């Protein structure tokens, strides 16, 4: 398990008073989690302990009742490996799975879902609720394309589907989206950052007295679908308009999409670069990289985030240039941003850097040296184009750039071995946000 981190409230020196202060929640040992919606809406605002919480890290800890689609856990997400592809043209879900627990009508349901990317223009996923049986349930359908059966709030009663409200916004197959359903009595609100836009108001609202209690789950009409997270809480959540959290090395190399150098993973606790590529000296960039599979929430852009990595340590050698890097905005090996921390400093190390089309540029210098072999905490805060870097809770560098606002997070070095411990990523979308306790 990760060490719990006490809540800390921080205002950035350049932005103090310019936006709500968001606290850093204690680290949770999960693979992925998302909290979306709420925002400036009416009704009681609560933030209770979830009554259902699934990060889909551990297969034995997922009490799902699988229907059609061949559902299984792989690589830290839960999805279909044998999807039914005959559902096009009808309201309903050819692929379907629900959690074993039954919940009431006054709940907030959060999920991070991804539709398989195909050559077609109708890739979709569904967030299911009020489920009674395969012929009776409610669901929010999200699709690349919209018609009377595609994107909207739907009811299936005795096997016959009806659209209760339309959702005039699309998803992109192959990208993860944070979506939320709030049910308050007979009122249903659907939230989500679709079309690359932050959710500042519900995508759709409907009223129905159907299925006041039922199960929650996922589905799709015609293609594979993958879930990174499911959470249900009583009442209306008071979380920020969009928050995504991801932490832990529990997936080992399966949780990494870009791996260079020899890495070893110790459960949830750490990633260790044990066999580094040693040809990186003299250039901007990282010869060694381990970049997390989970990346941006939105297809077109990533908003504000905080990336905290504990127990960061460069292996001590006879060299005076032992280093570590914290990577963000990673698109591929030739396009990413990173923070370099080093025992020594020159134009190619110890700073905030951008690598674009394989060419590196220093955005800001860091004149604070680390101690090789010692353990440090590194924090990267990005708010729009502004970047702040903290070393052991001390602000050590700032930069401004519009480059690479979407991407993945990770770790690396230019030339040596290193260790990276427990870490957390929190992403907030632009727009109204509420303070979190």
Spans of at least 5 consecutive residues with low confidence:
1-47, 297-302, 429-437
Mean pLDDT level: 79
* Terminal residue distance: 22 Å
Question: Radius of gyration, Cα only, in angstroms?
Answer: 22 Å
How many H/I helices? Answer: 0
Task: Explain this structure.
- By secondary structure, the chain is an all-beta fold.
- The protein is built from no helices and 36 strands.
- Strands 3, 21, 23, 24, 26, 31, 32, 33, 35 and 36 form a 10-stranded antiparallel sheet that branches. Strands 5, 7, 8, 10, 15, 16, 17 and 19 form an 8-stranded antiparallel sheet that branches. It has a 7-stranded antiparallel sheet with strand order 6-9-18-11-12-13-14, with no helix packed on it.
- The N terminus and C terminus are likely disordered.
């Amino acid at each position: 398990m990760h060490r719990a981190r006490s809540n800390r409230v921080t205002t950035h020196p350049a932005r103090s008073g310019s936006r709500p202060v968001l606290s850093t929640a204690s680290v949770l040992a999960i693979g992925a989690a998302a909290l979306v919606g709420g925002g400036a809406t009416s009704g009681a605002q609560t933030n209770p302990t979830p009554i259902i919480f699934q990060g889909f890290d551990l297969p034995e800890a997922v009490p799902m009742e699988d229907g059609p689609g061949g559902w299984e856990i792989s690589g830290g997400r839960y999805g279909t490996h044998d999807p039914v592809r005959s559902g096009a043209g009808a309201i309903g879900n050819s692929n379907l799975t629900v959690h074993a627990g039954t919940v009431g009508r006054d709940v907030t349901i959060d999920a991070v879902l991804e539709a398989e990317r195909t050559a077609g223009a109708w890739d979709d996923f569904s967030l299911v609720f009020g489920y009674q049986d395969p012929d009776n349930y409610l669901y929010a359908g999200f699709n690349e394309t919209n018609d009377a059966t595609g994107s909207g709030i739907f009811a299936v009663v005795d096997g016959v589907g009806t659209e209760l409200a339309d959702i005039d916004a699309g998803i992109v197959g192959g990208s993860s989206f944070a979506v939320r359903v709030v049910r308050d009595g007979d009122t249903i609100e659907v939230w989500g950052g679709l079309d690359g836009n932050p959710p500042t108001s519900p995508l759709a609202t409907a009223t129905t007295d159907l299925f006041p209690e039922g199960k929650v789950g996922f589905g799709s009409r015609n293609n594979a679908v993958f879930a990174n997270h499911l959470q249900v809480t009583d009442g209306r959540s008071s979380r920020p308009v969009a928050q995504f959290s991801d932490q832990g090395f529990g997936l080992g190399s399966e949780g990494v999409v870009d791996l260079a150098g020899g890495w070893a993973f110790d459960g949830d606790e750490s990633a260790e670069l044990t066999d580094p590529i040693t040809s990186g000296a003299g250039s901007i960039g990282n010869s060694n990289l381990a970049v997390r599979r989970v990346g941006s929430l939105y297809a077109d852009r990533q908003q504000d985030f905080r990336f905290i990595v504990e127990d960061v340590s460069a292996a001590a050698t006879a060299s005076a240039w032992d280093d570590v890097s914290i990577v963000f905005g990673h698109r591929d090996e030739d396009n990413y941003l990173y923070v370099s921390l080093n025992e020594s400093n020159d134009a190619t190390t110890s700073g905030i850097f951008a690598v674009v089309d394989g060419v590196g540029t220093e955005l800001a210098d860091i004149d604070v040296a680390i101690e090789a072999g010692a353990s440090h905490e590194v924090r990267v805060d990005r708010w729009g184009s502004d970047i702040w870097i903290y070393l052991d809770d001390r602000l050590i560098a700032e930069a401004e750039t519009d480059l690479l606002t979407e991407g993945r997070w990770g770790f690396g070095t230019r030339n040596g071995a290193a260790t990276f411990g427990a870490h957390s990523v929190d992403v907030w979308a632009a727009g109204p946000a509420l303070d979190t306790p």
